[in-house]
Amino acid sequence: MSEDILEAARAIRPYLSELLTAEEAKVIDERLAQLLAQKDQEKIDNLILDILCSQEPTRQWVDQFLELKLPPEIEKLYQPPLSPNPSVVSGLIKYACPNGDYVWYQRQIGEPIPNCPTHNVTLEQVT
Q1: CB 122 within 8 A of CB 115
Q2: What is the distance between the alpha carbons of residues 14 and 1, in angstroms, rounded to a whole number?
Q3: What gap in Å lies between CA 105 and CA 44, rounded to an integer?
Q4: Which of 13, 16, 48, 111 sits a CA distance of 20 to 30 A from 27?
Q5: Residue 85 sits in which domain range?
Q6: What's the CA gap between 86 and 94, in Å, rounded?
Q7: What is the 3-state secondary structure (H, E, C) of the chain?
């Protein structure tokens, strides 16, 4: 479950501004980035869960993510993967920060790939 919680924290970051007010999203995003940057990530699970469950919209999003292993918005657009690896969903490309704190899913072909908001580096395709 530990890796699932960390993945949920990485994956929710692009959606925070849709789920919360601008100020709440900024505060939670910064806190998640700080926690995900820590070396001993096993000890931060509960802190991340506390943050993600502190607001009803993020709690619901995380509940769905932990069940589907995909952001809820993505799962609605795509059929569940046949493979246990959610990055294999046909037509769906997963990108991640090389520093491990941000995940983004390209929803449409040609959609520009953003930089990691924490490190301002290009996201890399996850295979």
Answers
A1: yes
A2: 22
A3: 24
A4: 111
A5: 2-125
A6: 9
A7: CHHHHHHHHHHHHHHHHHHCCHHHHHHHHHHHHHHHCCCCHHHHHHHHHHHHCCCHHHHHHHHHHHHHCCCHHHHHHCCCCCCCCHHHCCCCEEEECCCCCCEEEECCCCCCCCECCCCCCECEECC
pLDDT band at residue 38, thresholds of 50, 70 and 90?
A: confident
Beta strand 103-106 with 124-125 is unpaired
User: Rounded to whole angstroms, how far apart are CA atoms 38 and 83?
Assistant: 30
- In this prediction the pTM is 0.81
- Whole-number CA gyration radius for the chain: 14
Residue 90 reports pLDDT greater than 60: no
Nearest C-alpha neighbor of 17 from the set 50, 65, 55, 44? 55
> What average pLDDT does this structure show over 93-111?
91
Retrieve residue 36's tokens: 């995900």
